[in-house]
Recover the amino acids of this structure.
């Protein structure tokens, strides 16, 4: 696939952006090198290679869910400018 000025103009219209002539030329070169890289990847023999969604095996990196003591409500609300019924009282944001 070749990238030319017409394709860059088409992509520019699809993306609803305006590029200068210098930016168009740079974009044309960048897109051409990206397509060339994909052509190199397509040339590789992938026969017998299992499809994968990640290059590295995924493991659960989350910590165990352990019940622990929490901070007392009074201590949490000690610095609150306003509170009502054990909750922070904030200004209304929606009319």
């Amino acid at each position: 696939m070749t990238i030319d000025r017409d394709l860059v103009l088409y992509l520019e219209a699809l993306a609803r952006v305006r590029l200068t002539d210098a930016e168009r030329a740079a974009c044309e070169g960048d897109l051409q090198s990206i397509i060339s890289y994909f052509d190199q990847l397509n040339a590789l023999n992938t026969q017998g290679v299992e499809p994968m969604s990640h290059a590295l095996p995924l493991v659960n990196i989350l910590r165990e869910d352990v019940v622990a003591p929490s901070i007392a409500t009074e201590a949490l609300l000690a610095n609150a400018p306003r509170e009502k019924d054990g909750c922070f009282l904030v200004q209304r944001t929606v009319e």
Summary: The longest helix spans residues 21-42. The first strand starts at residue 83 and ends at 84. The domain at 5-42 is CATH 1.10.20 (Histone, subunit A).
